[in-house]
Amino acid sequence: MLVPAGLVHDDTVFAYACRLYRMDIEGALAMMSENIDRPRASERGRVVGKEEIRAYWTRQWAEFNPHVEPIQVTDNEAGRTDVEVHQLIKNLNGDILSDQMLLHVLTIANGLIERMDIGKSKPAFARPVGFP
């Protein structure tokens, strides 16, 4: 994982990113509020609550082999953090279905992730990670 320590200002975000990278469902859910609200990217729409997210990820990971690697974490306005990720999705035979950079926008309150939105990442050539 390439997240430079100096760019991570929130232990919650770093712990979540590490657990998601390892596909640790229970560990990632521990970093979320009970009413977490996030996209259902492969099924469209949104999913709310830890139980629904657990079920969604279990279904998704039985059909696909996702690999989400955090690249850079940036704190924004109060309670919002951008996590730039490299997302590689393969089918269960190992064929690449998607290979892209995405932005996970996390809203944090009381030390837990309350909401996640997905956006397009900034161009990779804008500035190398770790450089001012």
Number of discrete helical segments:
3
Highest-level CATH class = Alpha Beta
Evaluate the radius of gyration.
14 Å
Q: What kind of sheet is the major sheet? A: 6 strands, mixed
Indicate the CATH architecture. Answer: Roll
Q: CATH topology, what is it called?
A: Nuclear Transport Factor 2, Chain: A
Please, how many domains? 1
Helix content: 10-25%
Straight-line distance between termini: 20 Å
Whole-number average pLDDT? 79
Helix- and strand-based class? alpha+beta
Number of strands: 6
Low-confidence stretches: 1-9, 123-132
Shape: globular
Reading the helices and strands in chain order gives HHEEHEEEE
| Beta strand % | 35-45%
Task: Explain the overall architecture.
This protein is of the alpha+beta class and 132 residues long. It has one domain (5-120): Nuclear Transport Factor 2, Chain: A, CATH 3.10.450.50. The chain is 23% helix and 44% strand. It is built from 3 helices and 6 strands. The chain has a 6-stranded mixed sheet with strand order 2-1-6-5-4-3, with helices on one face. It starts with 10 loop residues before the first helix and ends in a 12-residue tail after the last strand.
